[in-house]
Structure to design on (300 residues):
Protein backbone atom coordinates (compact mmCIF):
# COMPACT_ATOMS: atom_id res chain seq x y z
CA UNK A 1 0.00 0.00 0.00
CA UNK A 2 1.23 3.49 -0.82
CA UNK A 3 2.59 5.22 2.32
CA UNK A 4 0.35 8.26 1.94
CA UNK A 5 -2.72 6.06 1.56
CA UNK A 6 -1.61 3.93 4.50
CA UNK A 7 -1.07 7.00 6.68
CA UNK A 8 -4.54 8.32 5.82
CA UNK A 9 -6.05 4.92 6.57
CA UNK A 10 -4.31 4.71 9.95
CA UNK A 11 -5.41 8.27 10.77
CA UNK A 12 -8.96 7.31 9.90
CA UNK A 13 -8.83 4.23 12.15
CA UNK A 14 -7.40 6.21 15.08
CA UNK A 15 -10.03 8.93 14.71
CA UNK A 16 -12.80 6.33 14.59
CA UNK A 17 -11.42 4.57 17.65
CA UNK A 18 -11.21 7.81 19.65
CA UNK A 19 -14.68 8.85 18.50
CA UNK A 20 -16.19 5.51 19.54
CA UNK A 21 -14.49 5.70 22.93
CA UNK A 22 -15.73 9.24 23.52
CA UNK A 23 -19.26 8.29 22.53
CA UNK A 24 -19.61 5.08 24.55
CA UNK A 25 -17.14 5.38 27.44
CA UNK A 26 -16.86 9.12 28.11
CA UNK A 27 -18.40 8.78 31.58
CA UNK A 28 -15.74 6.20 32.56
CA UNK A 29 -12.71 7.90 31.00
CA UNK A 30 -10.52 10.69 32.37
CA UNK A 31 -8.26 10.80 29.34
CA UNK A 32 -7.35 9.32 25.98
CA UNK A 33 -3.68 9.93 25.27
CA UNK A 34 -1.76 8.95 22.14
CA UNK A 35 1.98 8.40 22.39
CA UNK A 36 4.95 6.97 20.52
CA UNK A 37 6.09 7.21 16.94
CA UNK A 38 2.60 7.81 15.59
CA UNK A 39 2.55 11.10 17.49
CA UNK A 40 6.11 12.12 16.61
CA UNK A 41 5.68 11.28 12.93
CA UNK A 42 8.39 8.60 12.99
CA UNK A 43 6.00 5.69 12.49
CA UNK A 44 7.32 2.72 10.50
CA UNK A 45 5.16 1.83 7.51
CA UNK A 46 6.77 -1.60 7.28
CA UNK A 47 5.29 -2.47 10.66
CA UNK A 48 3.21 0.48 11.89
CA UNK A 49 2.10 0.75 15.48
CA UNK A 50 -0.13 3.18 17.39
CA UNK A 51 0.02 3.56 21.17
CA UNK A 52 -3.15 4.52 23.03
CA UNK A 53 -3.30 5.08 26.79
CA UNK A 54 -6.80 4.98 28.28
CA UNK A 55 -7.04 6.50 31.76
CA UNK A 56 -10.19 5.22 33.44
CA UNK A 57 -11.83 6.74 36.51
CA UNK A 58 -11.56 4.86 39.83
CA UNK A 59 -15.17 3.68 39.71
CA UNK A 60 -14.88 2.05 36.26
CA UNK A 61 -16.92 -1.15 35.99
CA UNK A 62 -16.37 -4.46 34.20
CA UNK A 63 -18.93 -3.36 31.60
CA UNK A 64 -16.53 -0.68 30.38
CA UNK A 65 -13.82 -3.23 29.63
CA UNK A 66 -16.31 -5.47 27.81
CA UNK A 67 -17.38 -2.46 25.75
CA UNK A 68 -13.76 -1.61 25.00
CA UNK A 69 -13.16 -5.14 23.72
CA UNK A 70 -16.21 -4.97 21.46
CA UNK A 71 -15.05 -1.64 20.01
CA UNK A 72 -11.57 -2.98 19.29
CA UNK A 73 -12.67 -6.13 17.51
CA UNK A 74 -15.39 -4.38 15.52
CA UNK A 75 -12.75 -1.86 14.44
CA UNK A 76 -10.35 -4.62 13.42
CA UNK A 77 -13.00 -6.42 11.39
CA UNK A 78 -13.83 -3.23 9.49
CA UNK A 79 -10.26 -2.85 8.20
CA UNK A 80 -9.43 -6.40 7.10
CA UNK A 81 -9.26 -5.29 3.45
CA UNK A 82 -6.49 -2.81 4.28
CA UNK A 83 -4.36 -4.64 6.89
CA UNK A 84 -4.44 -7.07 9.77
CA UNK A 85 -4.96 -5.43 13.14
CA UNK A 86 -3.15 -6.72 16.19
CA UNK A 87 -4.39 -5.56 19.58
CA UNK A 88 -1.07 -5.28 21.36
CA UNK A 89 -1.08 -6.01 25.09
CA UNK A 90 2.61 -6.85 25.30
CA UNK A 91 4.29 -7.94 27.54
CA UNK A 92 1.30 -9.27 29.50
CA UNK A 93 -0.56 -10.90 26.61
CA UNK A 94 0.15 -11.50 22.94
CA UNK A 95 -2.81 -11.71 20.60
CA UNK A 96 -3.48 -13.14 17.15
CA UNK A 97 -4.06 -10.57 14.41
CA UNK A 98 -7.55 -9.78 13.18
CA UNK A 99 -7.55 -10.46 9.44
CA UNK A 100 -5.16 -12.27 7.13
CA UNK A 101 -3.31 -9.44 5.38
CA UNK A 102 0.48 -9.49 5.36
CA UNK A 103 0.60 -5.82 6.32
CA UNK A 104 -0.10 -5.53 10.04
CA UNK A 105 -1.05 -2.56 12.21
CA UNK A 106 -0.25 -2.98 15.89
CA UNK A 107 -2.65 -1.09 18.15
CA UNK A 108 -1.08 -0.93 21.60
CA UNK A 109 -3.96 -0.30 24.01
CA UNK A 110 -3.17 0.25 27.68
CA UNK A 111 -6.21 0.56 29.99
CA UNK A 112 -5.06 2.34 33.16
CA UNK A 113 -6.84 3.50 36.30
CA UNK A 114 -6.10 6.99 37.62
CA UNK A 115 -6.31 5.72 41.20
CA UNK A 116 -3.03 3.85 40.55
CA UNK A 117 -1.06 6.95 39.60
CA UNK A 118 1.17 6.84 42.70
CA UNK A 119 1.86 3.12 42.96
CA UNK A 120 5.25 1.91 44.23
CA UNK A 121 6.75 -1.58 44.38
CA UNK A 122 9.52 -3.25 46.39
CA UNK A 123 11.91 -4.71 43.80
CA UNK A 124 14.35 -5.99 46.40
CA UNK A 125 13.87 -6.19 50.21
CA UNK A 126 15.40 -2.72 50.56
CA UNK A 127 14.80 -1.15 47.13
CA UNK A 128 11.49 0.58 46.41
CA UNK A 129 10.55 1.82 42.93
CA UNK A 130 7.90 4.21 41.68
CA UNK A 131 5.61 2.38 39.26
CA UNK A 132 2.85 4.80 38.20
CA UNK A 133 -0.21 2.82 37.04
CA UNK A 134 1.83 -0.35 37.60
CA UNK A 135 4.25 0.60 34.79
CA UNK A 136 7.99 1.09 35.13
CA UNK A 137 8.90 4.75 35.48
CA UNK A 138 11.26 4.90 32.46
CA UNK A 139 8.42 3.63 30.27
CA UNK A 140 6.07 6.26 31.72
CA UNK A 141 8.67 8.95 31.06
CA UNK A 142 8.94 7.76 27.47
CA UNK A 143 5.15 7.94 27.10
CA UNK A 144 5.19 11.44 28.58
CA UNK A 145 7.88 12.69 26.18
CA UNK A 146 5.84 11.74 23.10
CA UNK A 147 2.25 12.28 24.25
CA UNK A 148 -0.77 13.89 22.64
CA UNK A 149 -3.98 14.19 24.66
CA UNK A 150 -7.02 13.76 22.40
CA UNK A 151 -9.70 13.57 25.11
CA UNK A 152 -9.92 14.75 28.70
CA UNK A 153 -7.10 15.63 31.07
CA UNK A 154 -3.33 15.52 30.62
CA UNK A 155 -2.70 12.80 33.21
CA UNK A 156 0.93 12.20 32.27
CA UNK A 157 1.73 15.89 32.55
CA UNK A 158 1.30 15.68 36.31
CA UNK A 159 3.86 12.90 36.79
CA UNK A 160 7.28 13.84 38.14
CA UNK A 161 9.85 13.02 35.47
CA UNK A 162 12.77 12.87 37.90
CA UNK A 163 14.65 9.69 37.08
CA UNK A 164 18.06 8.28 38.00
CA UNK A 165 20.21 5.30 37.05
CA UNK A 166 19.13 3.23 40.06
CA UNK A 167 15.47 3.67 39.01
CA UNK A 168 16.30 2.47 35.51
CA UNK A 169 18.26 -0.55 36.69
CA UNK A 170 15.52 -1.58 39.12
CA UNK A 171 12.91 -1.11 36.38
CA UNK A 172 14.94 -3.33 34.07
CA UNK A 173 15.17 -6.06 36.70
CA UNK A 174 11.41 -5.75 37.21
CA UNK A 175 10.46 -5.92 33.54
CA UNK A 176 12.84 -8.42 31.95
CA UNK A 177 11.51 -11.50 33.78
CA UNK A 178 8.13 -10.77 32.17
CA UNK A 179 9.71 -10.71 28.73
CA UNK A 180 11.65 -13.90 29.51
CA UNK A 181 8.41 -15.72 30.38
CA UNK A 182 6.88 -14.55 27.10
CA UNK A 183 9.88 -15.65 25.04
CA UNK A 184 10.18 -19.04 26.70
CA UNK A 185 6.49 -19.75 26.12
CA UNK A 186 6.26 -18.37 22.59
CA UNK A 187 7.55 -21.53 20.81
CA UNK A 188 5.11 -23.55 22.93
CA UNK A 189 2.16 -21.41 21.90
CA UNK A 190 2.31 -21.66 18.10
CA UNK A 191 3.11 -24.39 15.62
CA UNK A 192 6.39 -22.71 14.75
CA UNK A 193 6.85 -24.86 11.66
CA UNK A 194 3.73 -23.24 10.20
CA UNK A 195 3.16 -19.99 12.13
CA UNK A 196 6.72 -18.81 12.45
CA UNK A 197 5.42 -15.37 11.48
CA UNK A 198 3.82 -15.11 14.93
CA UNK A 199 7.08 -16.17 16.57
CA UNK A 200 8.92 -13.49 14.58
CA UNK A 201 6.42 -10.82 15.58
CA UNK A 202 6.67 -11.62 19.27
CA UNK A 203 10.46 -11.89 19.15
CA UNK A 204 10.88 -8.50 17.47
CA UNK A 205 8.71 -6.92 20.18
CA UNK A 206 10.82 -8.47 22.93
CA UNK A 207 14.17 -7.83 21.26
CA UNK A 208 13.40 -4.18 20.61
CA UNK A 209 12.24 -3.59 24.20
CA UNK A 210 15.33 -5.30 25.63
CA UNK A 211 17.62 -3.19 23.46
CA UNK A 212 16.01 -0.07 24.91
CA UNK A 213 16.60 -1.40 28.42
CA UNK A 214 20.22 -2.11 27.48
CA UNK A 215 20.66 1.48 26.33
CA UNK A 216 19.15 2.92 29.50
CA UNK A 217 21.19 0.93 32.03
CA UNK A 218 24.39 2.07 30.31
CA UNK A 219 23.67 5.77 30.81
CA UNK A 220 25.06 8.22 33.33
CA UNK A 221 22.75 10.22 35.59
CA UNK A 222 23.60 13.31 33.56
CA UNK A 223 22.54 11.64 30.30
CA UNK A 224 19.34 10.49 31.96
CA UNK A 225 18.63 14.00 33.21
CA UNK A 226 19.06 15.62 29.78
CA UNK A 227 17.00 12.94 28.04
CA UNK A 228 19.28 12.95 25.00
CA UNK A 229 19.30 9.15 24.95
CA UNK A 230 15.76 9.20 23.53
CA UNK A 231 17.42 9.96 20.19
CA UNK A 232 18.77 6.40 20.21
CA UNK A 233 15.21 5.08 20.05
CA UNK A 234 14.46 7.15 16.97
CA UNK A 235 17.72 6.68 15.05
CA UNK A 236 18.69 3.11 14.17
CA UNK A 237 22.32 3.92 13.34
CA UNK A 238 22.87 5.82 16.59
CA UNK A 239 21.38 2.93 18.50
CA UNK A 240 23.60 0.38 16.75
CA UNK A 241 26.72 2.47 17.35
CA UNK A 242 25.87 2.75 21.02
CA UNK A 243 25.29 -1.00 21.36
CA UNK A 244 28.56 -1.80 19.55
CA UNK A 245 30.46 0.49 21.94
CA UNK A 246 28.74 -0.53 25.18
CA UNK A 247 27.77 -4.16 24.51
CA UNK A 248 29.84 -5.60 21.63
CA UNK A 249 28.80 -9.11 22.74
CA UNK A 250 25.24 -8.47 21.49
CA UNK A 251 26.03 -6.14 18.57
CA UNK A 252 25.12 -8.73 15.92
CA UNK A 253 21.91 -9.68 17.71
CA UNK A 254 20.95 -6.01 17.93
CA UNK A 255 21.43 -5.62 14.18
CA UNK A 256 19.34 -8.76 13.58
CA UNK A 257 16.44 -7.31 15.59
CA UNK A 258 16.57 -3.84 14.06
CA UNK A 259 16.93 -5.15 10.51
CA UNK A 260 13.98 -7.47 11.10
CA UNK A 261 11.92 -4.55 12.35
CA UNK A 262 12.72 -2.57 9.20
CA UNK A 263 12.08 -5.54 6.88
CA UNK A 264 9.25 -7.14 8.78
CA UNK A 265 7.11 -8.22 5.84
CA UNK A 266 9.98 -10.25 4.38
CA UNK A 267 11.21 -11.68 7.70
CA UNK A 268 7.83 -13.03 8.80
CA UNK A 269 7.66 -15.09 5.59
CA UNK A 270 11.03 -16.71 6.21
CA UNK A 271 11.20 -19.50 8.81
CA UNK A 272 14.97 -19.42 9.20
CA UNK A 273 15.05 -15.65 9.71
CA UNK A 274 12.15 -15.91 12.18
CA UNK A 275 14.14 -18.39 14.26
CA UNK A 276 17.21 -16.17 14.05
CA UNK A 277 15.19 -13.25 15.38
CA UNK A 278 13.90 -15.37 18.26
CA UNK A 279 17.42 -16.46 19.23
CA UNK A 280 18.68 -12.88 18.98
CA UNK A 281 15.93 -11.59 21.26
CA UNK A 282 16.61 -14.33 23.81
CA UNK A 283 20.34 -13.55 23.85
CA UNK A 284 19.80 -9.80 24.21
CA UNK A 285 17.32 -10.32 27.05
CA UNK A 286 19.62 -12.53 29.10
CA UNK A 287 22.71 -10.40 28.52
CA UNK A 288 20.83 -7.23 29.50
CA UNK A 289 19.42 -8.84 32.65
CA UNK A 290 22.81 -10.02 33.93
CA UNK A 291 24.36 -6.65 33.05
CA UNK A 292 21.63 -4.91 35.08
CA UNK A 293 22.37 -7.15 38.08
CA UNK A 294 26.06 -6.21 37.89
CA UNK A 295 25.31 -2.52 37.53
CA UNK A 296 22.98 -2.56 40.54
CA UNK A 297 25.93 -3.68 42.66
CA UNK A 298 27.98 -0.82 41.27
CA UNK A 299 25.44 1.92 42.10
CA UNK A 300 24.73 0.64 45.62
Amino acid sequence: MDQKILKNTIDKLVNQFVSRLEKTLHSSLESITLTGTYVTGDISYERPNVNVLLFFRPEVTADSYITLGKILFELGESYTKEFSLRIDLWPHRFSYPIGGKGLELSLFVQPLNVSNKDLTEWITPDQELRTPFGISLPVIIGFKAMRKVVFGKDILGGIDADLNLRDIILSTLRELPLFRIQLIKAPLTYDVEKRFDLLATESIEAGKACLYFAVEIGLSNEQIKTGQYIEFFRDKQKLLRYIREQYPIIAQEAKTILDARDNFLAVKKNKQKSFEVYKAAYTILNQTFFTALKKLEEVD
